[in-house]
Design brief:
This protein is α+β, with helices and mostly antiparallel strands. The protein is built from 15 helices and six strands. Strand 4 and strand 5 form a beta hairpin. The structure holds a DNA duplex. This is Adenine DNA glycosylase.
Length: 344
DNA sequence: CAATCGTGGAG
DNA sequence: TCTCCAAGATT
């Protein structure tokens, strides 16, 4: 039976990728260390997040929380503050809990085994593989979106990446290609995926493995990866009241298991005797992955001290001002609203 | 296990 | 304007 040359000896592909990485690795702050703490933080920050989008957050986070102990001892709200604007805020909650796990269960020493790293809150198979391979010589492929794309093109493989078994499937494909240095290989695949084998307009001419790439050879790059499921965003209307008096305004912390959990927000209702204080409103549209939000923010200018105080007492709202809001984490549209309120 | 969780940039 | 999607994890 005739075998395509691409179907044997895949190891040379991995070595080509490593060689390319040696000359083309991006110069990123977390590339200059093997401190598992820093690598862990960077892996969490950059989940579903582009490098340019998360770089400042990463640097600021490391500066404020340079080690596990500092992070574990911090207040949850301050950890959330350093996550402000980054999205997927449960990452901040989990990263804080995981730091406490490391202090309590591992005496403050970052676990060096894949199975142990996997037990940390917010750490899944991808992150455990990345940290263990980069920092401790672990040998698991860090299969992420880049792996799906590069491998599905390399093998012209139709496996649906929205299938829940995609991780296992592409882990096996990765195993065919994976060379000795798994840590560098994992990082190399991410760089190739984001710099060369891009979702749109990939730079196949510059790709170190274009001679091995089946999709490239049959001119079908755009057909891979296959992804059948599309997320549909539903419309959702929210109403907030920007209740303010003498430069101060009212907020509270979200608690329900819903969007923006544990972030701060404005009141979503006012007392009946406040309705005469309404001076206008503004509607902001904001897109989340699964929701198209239409947020109406009603301006309530309270003049009566009694009405102000009664409302706060009844609902246990917190009082802040623009300056104080800098110390709390708000959803992006509310953060924007607060900053714009300066211009009045 | 399919649905859910942000934000911003590219095309 | 609109769609896709980016170093995923959790429930």
């Amino acid at each position: 039976m005739e075998k395509d040359s691409r179907n044997s000896d895949f190891l040379h592909v991995g070595n080509k990728i490593l060689e390319w990485y040696g000359n083309n690795a991006r110069d990123l702050p977390f590339r200059q260390t093997k401190d598992p703490y820093k690598i862990w933080i960077c892996e969490i920050v950059f989940q579903q997040t582009r490098i340019n989008q998360g770089l400042n957050h990463y640097n600021n986070f490391i500066k404020r929380f340079p080690d596990v102990k500092t992070l574990a001892e911090a207040e949850e709200n301050e950890v959330l503050l350093y996550w402000k604007g980054l999205g997927y805020y449960s990452r901040a909650i989990n990263i804080h809990k995981a730091a406490q796990q490391i202090m309590n269960d591992y005496h403050g020493v970052f676990p060096d085994q894949y199975e142990e790293i996997l037990k940390l809150k917010g750490v899944g198979k991808y992150t455990a593989a990345a940290v263990s391979s980069i920092c401790f010589g672990g040998r698991m492929p860090a299969v992420d979106g880049n792996f799906y794309r590069v491998l599905s093109r390399l093998f012209a493989d139709n496996f649906d990446i929205s299938n829940s078994k995609a991780f296992t499937y592409f882990s096996e494909l990765a195993g065919l290609v994976m060379p000795e240095n798994v840590g560098d290989f994992n990082q190399a695949m991410m760089d190739i995926g984001s710099e060369i084998c891009k979702p749109k307009n990939p730079l196949c001419g510059e790709c170190p493995i274009n001679e091995d790439c089946l999709a490239f050879s049959i001119q079908k790059i755009a057909d891979y990866p296959v992804k059948t499921k599309k997320v549909k965003a539903e419309d959702l209307a929210l109403t907030y009241y920007f209740v303010h008096r003498n430069g101060q305004f009212l907020i509270r912390q979200r608690k329900e298991d819903f969007i923006w959990k544990k972030l701060f927000e404005f009141p979503d209702a006012i007392s009946s005797n406040m309705e005469t204080c309404i001076t206008g409103s503004k509607t902001v549209n904001h897109k989340l992955t699964h929701k198209n939000l239409s947020i109406e923010i009603i301006n309530v200018e309270v003049t009566s001290e009694k009405i102000w105080n009664d409302f706060i007492d009844e609902n246990q709202y917190l009082i802040t001002d623009v300056e104080g809001s800098h110390e709390k984490s708000f959803p992006k549209p509310l953060e924007n609203y607060i900053q714009n309120s300066l211009k009045d």
